Amino acid sequence: MANFTIVIHGGAGTIVKEDMTPGLEKAYLDGLHDALNVSYAVLEQGGTAVNAVKAAVVALEDNILFNAGRGSVFTKKGVQEMDAAIMDGSDLSAGAVAGVRNVRNPIELATEVMRNSNHVFLSGKGANDFAIKQGVKLEPDEYFFSQFRYDQWKAIRDSDNYSLDHTHHQLEELMRDKKFGTVGAVAFDAYGNLAAATSTGGMTNKKYGRIGDSPMIGGGTYANNRTCAISCTGHGEMFIRAVAAYDVSCLVEYKGLSLQEAMDVVVNDKLLKMEGEGGMIGVDAKGNPALVFNSAGMYRGVKNSGGLNEVSIYK
């Protein structure tokens, strides 16, 4: 029987049970289950790894609880600027967008870039123009408004602070309570192909058109059939400097480490030494999943053809 695997994440950081109401916890777990099930169905029906990761990320972007797509946080200017990337491990093709506005599903746009643009990375207005040309669905500003995100932004918008994603409203708590709101997925399909996808609304109150690791091929997103597929979530600046996703692939390819070992080295040694908090999900060239994080929690899930099916939040 063909073997296939999907792994997803919805962000990492200071996510602890005492901050969570039973209702909110259930909503997050339901959201993860929905994304897992829709993407697993793609694989089960003989779909590709690329289509599976795209389906998972679309489901998470459409869920207002996660900092991507509809649930994206507010920038310093009080708008949403979104980043996303997707990569096909079978031929190393990739597509990425940064600083896009009003695009309902940035991962759909990243996929269009990969398949139909002759480029890898588009940004800002140009990326939005390409979205219009390709018929990618747009939404008005109101679609992206959530009171929860607006209150987060209001608490720090008059300061020079930025915040990664969080639930509390007091400034001192904001700085202590870090959450890295990114969503992502990696998949291994029945044909032996790997893919990775990542999408984010970035940091609350971010300035200057800041871009994190999520849309950067090799930083927050990477897939190569010879090694693994990786999607990261964390303090983007450190993940960029560590070239985190690609480094895992290199450790597998050149040092012969297992995926789990390679991810442990990057997340729990290399990134920790740089004070890089967060985590990553991965799947190797045989379909083995791995989920590693050095923060208090990571919204995550994994499902495969061998009967594994679980979602979790805390350590």
Automatic annotation (TrEMBL):
Coiled coil (residue ranges): none
Pfam families noted in UniProt: Asparaginase_2
UniProt-listed InterPro entries: Ntn_hydrolases_N, Peptidase_T2
CDD domains to which the protein is assigned, alphabetical: Asparaginase_2
Taxonomic superkingdom: Bacteria
Annotated protein name in UniProt: Isoaspartyl peptidase/L-asparaginase
